[in-house]
Specification:
It is built from two helices and no strands. With 151 residues, it is an all-alpha fold.
């Protein structure tokens, strides 16, 4: 009898405290009802969404592709133009730098040329002064010789 009472107490205790079978049955029922009622609504929403996407693809994508293609070619043209301008400016800057360097070199060469010309002028002046001195000396000697013959 004790066993029967213990078994009944265990059965009562499991029914009172262990609610897992009841909860699991309720969850299954709720999920089944939710899927049935919501499933049709979700299917309709997905079908409408799919239809809208297809219509959009048919109408918008070709127009957008043409627009994007045109804009892309415009952008590429503008980028090429800007790149050419940058290259032109770079070339002008290099040429300007080369011109300045050439001008400096020419100034240095001209200064050197003027120094060389001054040195050559001084040499010529010295040679001229020597020649004039020698000629004057000869002329005076010839004058003396001529004066001796005339007397």
């Amino acid at each position: 009898m004790m066993e029967k009472i213990a078994k009944d107490v265990g059965d009562i205790q499991s029914r009172l405290l262990d609610h897992r079978p009841v909860i699991s049955a309720e969850v299954r029922y709720f999920v089944r009802e939710f899927e049935e009622k919501r499933g049709l609504r979700e299917t309709r929403l997905l079908e409408n969404l799919n239809k809208t996407v297809q219509e959009t693809n048919e109408q918008m994508v070709p127009a957008n592709l043409q627009e994007m293609s045109q804009k892309l070619s415009d952008i590429m043209e503008a980028a090429n133009h800007m790149a050419e301008r940058v290259q032109q400016r770079e070339l002008e800057t290099q040429q300007s730098s080369q011109l300045q360097a050439n001008m400096e070199k020419l100034k240095e060469d001209w200064a050197e040329f003027l120094k060389e010309q001054q040195r050559l002028k001084e040499e010529v002046d010295e040679e001229h002064a020597k020649a004039v001195g020698e000629i004057s000396t000869r002329f005076s000697e010839k004058k003396k010789d001529l004066a001796q013959f005339s007397l």
